[in-house]
């Protein structure tokens, strides 16, 4: 009788979910199997289990999250047990309280929007995808982490007569186009997978790097590096991060953190390599060597990085339908009606804008305070080296102990504090600047690794690519003015102007921590819990 009851319940629940009457259906349509009302022949806890199992099974039919029914079932099941009990039968207060407790526990975990059974969360194939993503993110995030090594050279050589705010547009446009490219890459990934995206992104990315080697004027830097490499960066970023998310759920923060340490590895190698090659073979061949290394890493990544399963989709009937689909699915305004997504996106935008602005000008700041170019590049390397631990350790703590949002709030807050208590008052001391580079690199390491994980925590895996891309579109809008504003604040590179710049970076980071805290509050309130 139990199996037949589940079938009847699932049918009624499916009908009510489609019509939007879940609560009503769960109380009134929990009907008869073999002439006996469900709930009259079974214990209440058993019925609750069957309700929950039917809801989970129905998710696979509808592609819906397993949250809404559980919340509404708390009321409707109470009504059900009250209305359908046998004459003389009593549900004790203790039993009712145990039912309430059980439902509330499920509601606390309701933000886990995917079925655990769909994710291997380990195994050779899953970890090979993590390694493939790691290899791809060595150039993709590694160059982002090494922008300071490029900025400090071209601003004192090819573009020495150009103002800091003008030079900063090269990197601002690069980051903006990178994030905008994520929009269409996200929709394509959700529909078609990673392989074609990664091949196309590699061609754009490596082509732009090789073009950078021959640039002399600012418009050439913008066309080659900002536009071409920026487009490739955005196309590659989405599949490299999203593919890992398709293999992991409970260990997603750890796996993503391991993959994104590739960015720190690139950030360690590239500044040291470029500093040495600038002197030995010149800028042109130094950048070409960088291009060949990036190409090798990306070829390896293409071979290993795959999403867990190819989506089953129908082909488009026309090119018009294709264009409409990409425009409607790659960026969804409807996501911004969900306030926890809005504040998570704002938090990521403020934090990453602060991070990239500070990292871009760290080497120039060190030189302006009297340090040699050699020391300035080594500080950038130390910053990225500490970022390896900063990516893995917070990710591990997030999965095992504190939760993703809690760790993100802590690390971003510490990053803002470090700017104000070490960098601002003691930046003139070489020792203090070394201490800042190492500690700041550690605490900001989690920003790039946990941002997609936090977005994934409030998203279904089927929608992750689009939501990730939509969030990064907002980040693109943030990056348009943030770097140029930073360059304008620096102005003539005086100590006073650099101090104003440090305050600006700290305020951006503090705003990021505040927005993540608001998003956490919207999800779980002020309770002290792992989230």
TrEMBL record:
CDD domains: MFS_MCT_SLC16. Gene3D superfamilies: MFS general substrate transporter like domains. It comes from the Eukaryota. Residues 125-523 form the Major facilitator superfamily (MFS) profile domain. It is a multi-pass membrane protein. Pfam families: MFS_1. GO terms for biological process: riboflavin transport. It is found in: Membrane. One of its GO terms (molecular function) is transmembrane transporter activity. Belongs to the major facilitator superfamily. Monocarboxylate porter (TC 2.A.1.13) family. This is Putative transporter MCH4. The lineage of its organism: Eukaryota, Fungi, Dikarya, Ascomycota, Saccharomycotina.
């Amino acid at each position: 009788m139990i199996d037949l009851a589940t079938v009847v319940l699932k049918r009624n629940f499916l009908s009510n979910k489609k019509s939007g009457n879940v609560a009503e259906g769960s109380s009134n349509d929990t009907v008869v199997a073999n002439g006996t009302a469900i709930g009259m022949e079974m214990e209440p806890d058993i019925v609750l289990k069957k309700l929950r199992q039917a809801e989970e099974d129905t998710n696979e039919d509808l592609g819906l999250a397993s949250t809404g029914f559980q919340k509404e079932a708390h009321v409707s099941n109470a009504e059900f047990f009250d209305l359908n009990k046998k004459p003389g039968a009593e549900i004790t207060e203790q039993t009712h309280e145990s039912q309430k407790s059980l439902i509330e526990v499920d509601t606390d975990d309701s933000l886990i929007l995917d079925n655990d059974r769909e994710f291997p969360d380990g195994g050779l194939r899953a970890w090979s995808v993590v390694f493939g993503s790691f290899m791809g993110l060595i150039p993709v995030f590694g160059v982002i982490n090494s922008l300071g090594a490029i900025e400090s050279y071209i601003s004192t050589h090819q573009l020495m007569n150009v103002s800091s705010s003008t030079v900063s547009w090269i990197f601002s446009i690069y980051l903006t186009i990178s994030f905008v490219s994520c929009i269409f890459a996200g929709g394509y990934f959700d529909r078609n997978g990673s392989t074609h995206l990664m091949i196309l992104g590699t061609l754009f990315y490596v082509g732009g790097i090789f073009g950078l080697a021959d640039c002399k004027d600012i418009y050439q830097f913008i066309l080659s590096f900002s536009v071409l490499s920026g487009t490739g960066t955005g196309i590659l970023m989405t599949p490299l991060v999203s593919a890992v998310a398709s293999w992991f759920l409970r260990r997603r923060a750890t796996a993503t953190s391991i993959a994104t340490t590739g960015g720190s590895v690139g950030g360690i190698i590239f500044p040291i390599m470029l500093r040495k090659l600038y002197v030995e073979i010149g800028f042109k061949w130094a950048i070409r060597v960088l291009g060949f290394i990036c190409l090798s890493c990306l070829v390896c990544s293409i071979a290993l990085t795959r999403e867990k399963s190819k989506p089953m989709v129908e082909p488009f009937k026309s090119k018009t339908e294709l264009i409409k689909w990409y425009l409607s699915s790659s960026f969804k305004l409807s996501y911004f009606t969900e306030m926890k997504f809005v504040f998570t996106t704002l938090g990521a935008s403020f934090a990453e804008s602060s991070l990239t602005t500070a990292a871009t000008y760290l080497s120039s700041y060190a030189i302006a305070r009297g340090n040699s170019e050699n020391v300035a590049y080594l500080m950038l390397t130390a910053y990225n080296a500490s970022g390896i631990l900063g990516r893995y350790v917070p990710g591990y703590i997030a999965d095992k102990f504190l939760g993703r949002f809690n760790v993100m709030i802590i690390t971003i807050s510490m990053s803002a504090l470090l700017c104000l208590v070490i960098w601002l008052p003691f930046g003139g001391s070489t020792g203090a600047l070394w201490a800042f580079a190492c500690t700041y690199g550690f605490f900001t390491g989690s920003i790039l690794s946990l941002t997609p994980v936090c977005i994934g925590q409030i998203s279904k895996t089927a929608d992750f690519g689009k939501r990730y891309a939509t969030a990064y579109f907002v980040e693109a809008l943030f990056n348009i003015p943030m770097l140029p504003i930073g360059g304008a604040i620096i102005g003539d590179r005086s100590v006073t102007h650099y101090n104003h710049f440090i305050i600006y970076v700290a305020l951006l980071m503090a705003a990021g921590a505040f927005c993540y805290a608001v998003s956490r509050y919207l999800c779980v309130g002020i309770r002290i819990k792992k989230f």
